[in-house]
User: Fold this.
Amino acid sequence: MNEPLSRSEVLSDLVRSYRIFGALGWGDLGDGHISARDPEHTECFWLLRNGVPFTQATVDDMVLLDQSGDTVLGEGNVNSPAFNIHCPILTARTDLNSAAHTHTPWGTPFSAEVRPILPITQEACIFVDDCALFDDEEVQIRDLAGGTRIAQCLGHKHAIILRNHGLLTAGASVASAVVRFVTLERVAEAHLKVQNPVPISDESAKQAQGGLFREARVRAKFEYLAKSHGIT
Assistant:
């Protein structure tokens, strides 16, 4: 079993995650957020402060918030919808330590079709029975009530399609949430590009699922993703 990450290791992963998103061209309008539960104060979580481009994120730009939205460590304000979304999810799911959401070229338009993921590609098998569909017209998430509805819809799954809004993924680590998000974006792309797809059976998809995404292998995938974009 892997040893729990220290605060400095969690923050390092969080910084690199924002930089990965930035390298992919995501969040260039300040939209999107990645959270990380603090390993020392587990009821609190870290977010990037407002005004910092994802590609320029540093540890000093991270802000630790409690469940009331008060700043525990760090300086600066954070995106209000980010708190409203991440707080209910991480409060409801103690098995999750991170969530990721941003507006992407394929995930956002796919969310407007309000349809589930089907096992039409190898990567799509990862999300069979593990991706919820949030069929709700609130796209700004102005308060915790909106985030609570998302958390309730997510249930025990690790991904959710937010209607007319985009994708959100979560995981036991920052690396897990981010690898899932990048994968789900590719799956959304396939769904929009392929005409008349022929899915494999759910049974076959579930057989493949275990070998395609394992928490034990997430670290290697995350490191590969970071290095592919020149992020160390």
The first strand starts at residue 33 and ends at 37. The radius of gyration is 17 Å.
